[in-house]
Specification:
46% of the residues lie in helices and 20% in strands. By secondary structure, the protein is of the alpha+beta class. The chain is globular and about 65 Å long.
Length: 329
Amino acid sequence: MKFPEKFELKILSRDWVLKHWGPPQPSKEMLIEELVYKLSLLVSPDFNITKGKREWAASFMAATAGYTLYVIKENFNIADPVARRAIAHELVHILQYHYFRPHYPTTLDKKMAIQALIEGDADLVADIYCNLTGMPPRPKPSIPINNPYIALQSFPYIYGECFVSYLYDRGGWKLVNQAYKIPPISTEQVIHPEKYLKREQPVNTTLITNETGKPLYINVMGEYYVLLILITKIGMSEALRASEGWGGDLLELFYVDEAKEWRLYWNITWDTVKDAQEFYDAFNKALRNIGAVKIMNGSNRVMYKVWSYIIEVFINNRNVLIKSVKEIK
């Protein structure tokens, strides 16, 4: 592939990036997103999404948008091989835009899957560049479990290169390029690339609630999101086992004015009844590990009080439903 004849290079200051890419004040949509992360137990009750987004924006060394390459001068040391690798990575994004114009879906799970293809492709090329020029490749990234929000944003960089390398090893650049026409549609397909090649589709999960109003937030969260929730509470190996049977999910958030409550419903469908039971047990253990107090126990339903939330967990065949309620005082 040849580069377009012209593209721009812009040098930005870190202050400019924080002002324009890291919002100083949260929008309504950001506050709802923050509440979803809290009620689904991804983050603790003191999490601040504005701070999280600004921290993420401040970490950039370089970025691209269309035919423009941006370099953040305070984060960029030209003498550092990491900076040269970053330029190689970002130049691939210009090629991707020029030849493929990737489309970003609206659901979280699908969006992260596309991002993993894009970032993984750029990372693979950047590491090939490092090998050709004698520079050390980047260390294999790991999940920053001490910062779940940053861990969520980091998915494309943690799993992307392994996914694209899997395709490259089996079909070269032809198969990698073909993935832009038939992209991965779930984080499950990225984490387990053999499922991508088999075209294993997520289940179209349904969610039935008794709420009369319309949800303020609807999303598909995905296997990686489930993994993150567990990993911070029960450890890596157990979380991996409990999340890998994910088949599909649907999450909705409501505000009930009469009760002055936020209510989150999240139905997760699993590949098998055994997978559902394994997640149900792991999620209950995760709740106990963060100090949740059991206030009701049934054969297929448990209710807890944790922080300022009431959380109910139901299991029915291959489905596990989580209902999380926060009262507004």
